[in-house]
Design a protein that fits this description.
alpha+beta, 2 domains, 6 helices, 41% helix, elongated
């Protein structure tokens, strides 16, 4: 039975540790290796069109694989046991959650901008985040200030847009920002992010229409 109001539970997490942050950042190091290699090669060969095109080509390819450099395959593997059974879910996404203001600070906030990772699940009446340390359930009618946000400089302003919202009954909890973490390529990241926002928009608009109809009928 869907919750009548939003529910938020937090606990100590076990997945997002300094060790996992290091592993995720190593994906970025591996992604940059071809770029560094191409620069080393052009430094010892005669200047020409190849010396100009080779670095640009490797940078373009590395940018295309930016989600892979963020360690998305590793994130998807970490959260695979958090996915709920099918039940009433309509669609689900592997995501990271960032709270505003942040739950984490210091060195962790520098290494990774995620406060938690898990599954974002759309059901008939609520959207649910089933994360490692956060469990959030929000009826669609309680979602306010729904926005799409650019991923910012950390993602070269190219990654799929994030989705943020506030909860009507929890004004002191700030904003909840979700970003997809299942893609390997930039086009996939943008497609998944657009689909995630579309689900939010459709469900929240549907709830608003139902609420207006109910008021009109009173």
């Amino acid at each position: 039975m869907p919750a009548a109001t939003a529910q938020l539970e937090t606990k100590a997490g076990t997945l997002l540790t300094p060790g996992t942050a290091v592993v995720m950042n190593l994906f970025g190091v591996v992604l940059m290796a071809p770029v560094l290699a191409s620069m080393m090669v052009i430094s010892v060969v005669q200047f020409g069109i190849i010396t100009f095109l080779a670095p640009l080509g490797t940078i373009a390819i590395a940018t295309l694989f930016l989600p892979l450099g963020f360690g998305n395959p590793y994130v998807a593997r970490l959260v695979r046991n958090l996915r709920p059974s099918e039940g009433e879910l309509l669609e689900s996404f592997v995501v990271q959650l960032t709270r505003v203001p942040r739950l984490r600070s210091g060195l962790w906030a520098v290494l990774d901008n995620a406060d938690d990772i898990g599954w974002l699940i759309f059901t008939n009446d609520t959207v649910v985040f089933n994360g490692d340390s956060v469990r959030l359930s929000v009826p669609y009618y309680e979602i306010h200030d729904l926005k799409r946000r650019n991923a910012g400089w950390r993602a070269l302003f190219a990654y799929g847009a994030q989705v943020s919202f506030r909860i009507a009954s929890m004004p002191n909890e700030g904003s909840f920002v979700f970003a997809e973490r299942a893609s390997w390529f930039l086009p996939s990241s943008r497609r998944i992010s657009a689909r995630m926002y579309q689900k939010f928009f459709e469900r929240t608009q549907g709830q608003s229409s139902q609420a207006k109809s109910s008021k009109a009928g009173v």
